[in-house]
Write a structure and sequence with these properties.
Helix content: 25-40%
Oligomer: single chain
CATH superfamily of the largest domain: Hypothetical Protein Pfu-838710-001
Strand order of the largest sheet: 1-5-4-3-2-7-8-9
CATH class of the largest domain: Mainly Beta
Order of helices and strands: EHEEEEEHEEEHHEHHEEEHEHEE
Number of helices: 8
Structural class: alpha+beta
Number of strands: 16
Number of domains: 2
């Protein structure tokens, strides 16, 4: 099945939404999508898990040009996405995972996607779907007309997919898995390597005790633990990142992102709806924790409330939440 499509950065999603509402013939609604891209020698292969449409495997071939371009694809419904993902991960390896909130509008046969992509920003996409090969040029014309309607500039157009925008989850060989043993030992070692974040001895000791009874994921490189994340389950619907740490030499290499994605997948499989985290509030200036807050915002967390005295007046607490 072919379509003609473009993808572009969108700095004003509110304005784009107004245009879409004015032109749309149908509004299917807001879709929460998680796309797992697998390594392929040619083309692209992704498993899409959609809140509106369920799970579907999408193999497709498309040229990487900035303007309107043809994409050949098919949609393969997956009744067991968990097993499909596990098998494809073993067979091909996961290249990256992209999570987005997509507001979908239809303008006749053209799908308009207004995307808020976790960690990447906001985008607009057109897909003119057709069957008859003789329609290809007319579909190019429709897309070019919509580019003008939405006032998309050439500089906003993107050549590749979100796969290329996101890049690889990890920048080197790494294994992430749930661990049952040595949780306290790994926690102790990594927290002590991060004195700018974990400088209170009593807190380190408490974290070490806590994680021994918590669901914990760890990242390993050449058999060495280089990061971990522990979850505190508050209810069937909500869990909290109780503590997370990545060895300083592996910062900004995708470890934290991959740990959170592993935890999120685990929670979704259990039917959980929310993931929360507490961190230092911006009302106390701290460069290290400013980076931490920006990281969580980039992962899709949003601020809920500040608790000024939960950790003592000197360490105001910020509560953040992410829907799963």
């Amino acid at each position: 099945m072919p379509n003609i499509e473009i993808k572009a950065r969108c700095n004003d999603l509110t304005k784009a939404t107004a245009t879409a509402k004015r032109l749309a013939t149908e509004h299917p609604g807001l879709d929460h999508q998680i796309d797992t891209y697998f390594n392929t020698p040619k083309g692209r292969l992704k498993l899409r898990e959609s809140s509106l449409s369920g799970a579907v495997l999408i193999p497709y071939i498309r040229s990487d040009t900035a303007g309107p371009k043809k994409s050949d694809y098919t949609l393969l419904t997956s009744k067991d996405p968990k097993t499909a993902k596990a098998l494809l991960s073993q067979m091909l390896g996961v290249e990256t995972v992209v999570e987005k909130y997509r507001d979908i509008y239809l303008i006749d046969n053209v799908r308009v996607h207004l995307d808020n992509v976790v960690g990447l920003g906001t985008f607009i996409e057109f897909e003119a779907v057709y069957q008859d090969p003789n329609q290809e040029e007319s579909e190019h014309t429709k897309v070019r007309e919509l580019i003008r309607e939405f006032q998309i500039q050439e500089s906003q157009l993107i050549r590749g997919s979100y796969r290329e925008q996101a890049g690889s989850i990890l920048h080197f060989p790494c294994v992430i898995r749930e661990i049952k043993e040595e949780r306290g030992t790994i926690c102790n070692t990594l927290l002590r390597a991060l004195p700018d974040w974990f400088g209170i001895e009593s807190s380190i000791q408490q974290y070490v005790r806590d994680v021994d009874s918590m669901t914990t994921f760890a990242a390993f490189n050449d058999g060495n633990a280089i990061g971990f994340l522990s979850l505190n389950k508050h209810s069937a619907s909500t869990s909290e990142i109780h503590v997370m740490a990545v060895s300083p030499e592996y910062h900004r290499k995708g470890i934290g992102r991959a740990l959170i994605q592993s935890a999120e997948q685990h929670l979704r499989e259990l039917g959980a709806e929310f993931l929360t985290v507490k961190t230092l509030s911006p009302s106390r200036e701290c460069a290290e924790y400013e980076r931490t807050r920006q990281f969580y915002i980039g992962m899709g967390f949003r601020v809920v409330e500040e608790f000024k005295t939960l950790w003592g007046a000197a360490n105001p607490c910020l509560l953040m939440i992410k829907p799963l």
